[in-house]
Specification:
Length: about 350
Amino acid sequence: MNYNQSGSRRGKSKRILDPSTGLTAPTSPQNPYMYNQQVPMNNGMQPDYGFNVSEQQPLSYGFNPSAMPAPMQPMAGGPPMNPYAPEPPRENFANPQQFATQLLTEPIVANVAMKYGDALVGTGKQHLEKYVPVTALKYYFAVDTDYVLLKLALLFFPFTHKDWSMKYEQDVPLQPRYEKNAPDMYIPTMAFLTYVVMAGLSLGTQERFTPEQLGIIASSALAWGVIELLVHTITLYVMNLDTSLRTLDLLAYCGYKYVGINAALLISLVMEKFGYYTILIYFSISLAFFLIRSLKLRVIPEGHTSYTATGNKRRLYFILFVAVLQPFLMWWLSYHLI
């Protein structure tokens, strides 16, 4: 029986490798025992995965330069921009100090802060003026070197001085640097500080110095100064005396005694007690004379007709009380230091 290959059954479909080429599959029969036989899995049909994958364009699963965006165009007149350059660092305001510094560098913020500071200082001055006479203190510290030298000479040698009157300009007394008869606070303040230093030096030469002694001496002197000022103020009130003396005037006149104390302590380092008592007695007399002549024109002004004889006696008693009290306080504040 002859087998005719061409006599295969009609109507049997041919195996097509590529529908577009029209090539037929090989006519050799497929060996069922060969496992490595390459046969198209889709049998020439388009895969149905829900989307169409073109065989002409391979899939790219890595870096595809053609898929990158076009580089940014630089601005006119500027350098070319690199699209792959890292972003500039952003300002970090996590540090409050850095944020405050950058904020204050702004002109608007600086102007507002300056105006607010000026307003705050002005308000503080107004409140301070209620308790501390800052403007008045400026008058008492308006001194120069010539005034200090003339004033010290006047304290030690007041007997030759003739004119004790004070000059005024538009009902306001001249500043101390223009009028040597005017009281000041510079000499009493510096004399008080020098007194504390001289006290430590005197105790050191006697091997009695301790750091606590300076604090005790300074606080004790301040306490006696406050008590003395209160006594004079109460005396003026009780005696009902209307004078041109101010509280700072009394404080200045009473503070001149520290000049004599310093001179006495300085001489005591060389001449011991003899030199101390000699300078103390002499300066007590000169200071009393200085206070009587200076306070007389402030308590009993010349040509004032409204004062009665009785009132003038009370004023004179007050002047003598202030002048006599100074030598006693000079001795009380310095006798234990020699």
